[in-house]
Amino acid sequence: MPLVLTQLRGIKHVQQGDDLVKLIIDALVGNDLSLKDGDIVVLAQKIVSKSEGRLINLTTVNPSARAIQIGKEVEKRPELIELILQESNEVLRTRPGTIIVEHKSGFVCANAGIDHSNVMGTWGEPKDWVLLLPEDADKSAEYIRKGLEKYYRVRIGVMIIDSHGRAWRLGVIGMAIGLSGLPGLVDLHGKPDMYDYKLRVTRVAAVDELAAGASLMMGQADEATPVIHVRGFPYKLREGSAGELVRSKELDLFR
């Protein structure tokens, strides 16, 4: 089966409290699609965070002494640094313009995933509004998955993705930060290659591979296509979590 990724067009701007399950169902209908067993729905992190009320105005944040000090070092607003500290387990690296942390969910990223782009509040200056990642992206994905499965009576997977940088390469790429109903990692240990050599250590970050393609379809600017329908995922669905993809500190050569 070919792998087919389809943009769900016509999705409105998401606000706090919006029902994403209904939004996705309406979008599927509007794009003449339905869900079948094995399909996957990929959501941009921003619409999940917005629906969950993760929008914060920086003028309401009281920065700590530590946030003020780090803010001077990295040349960022101390209010933003305070939010980054609250959303993180540990600060790993800093330099002017950049702060790398271990997010509360366990993965390493810049600025704890807090973002200004495509964010608009209901009062004050637009520059003061930022959006935090979902508190528990796996749980968010599970909620959406169960709602869609109940409506369509199918077995599917749901992913929440965000744009992240990588240690070895320039540029951002779509990566999974939350998932439900599909494997994060696929272990190919013992599988034969073309010459019957059995693979020993190959593990595929299947959700990140799919996230990269979905992110390409979503775009990074004003495309307004934050949900992607996927058919033809080449691996069996199973219960999974984004934690599968987190490298332990003992094996992380960058720590």
What does this structure look like?
The protein is an alpha+beta fold and 255 residues long. It folds into 2 domains: 4-52 and 133-246, 60s Ribosomal Protein L30, Chain: A; 55-131, Alpha-Beta Complex (CofE-like fold), CATH 3.90.1660. The protein is 26% helix and 22% strand. The chain has helices at residues 20-30, 45-51, 65-74, 78-86, 137-152, 206-218, and strands at 4-7, 40-44, 55-57, 88-95, 98-103, 108-110, 129-131, 157-164, 173-180, 186-187, 203-204, 227-231. The strands form 4 sheets. It has a 5-stranded mixed β-sheet with strand order 1-12-2-8-9. Strands 4-5-6 form a 3-stranded antiparallel β-sheet. Helix 3 packs across helix 4.
Count the E strands.
12
Rg: 19 Å
- Give the total of domains: 2
- CATH topology name of the largest domain: 60s Ribosomal Protein L30, Chain: A
CATH superfamily of the largest domain: CofE-like
- Assign the CATH architecture of the largest domain: 2-Layer Sandwich
Number of helices: 6
Question: Which keywords apply here?
Answer:
255 residues, alpha+beta, 60s Ribosomal Protein L30, Chain: A, CofE-like fold, 5-stranded mixed beta sheet, 3-stranded antiparallel beta sheet, 6 helices, 22% strand
Short description:
By secondary structure, the chain is α+β, with helices and mostly antiparallel strands. It has six helices and twelve strands. α1 packs across α5 (137-152) and α3 packs across α4 (78-86).
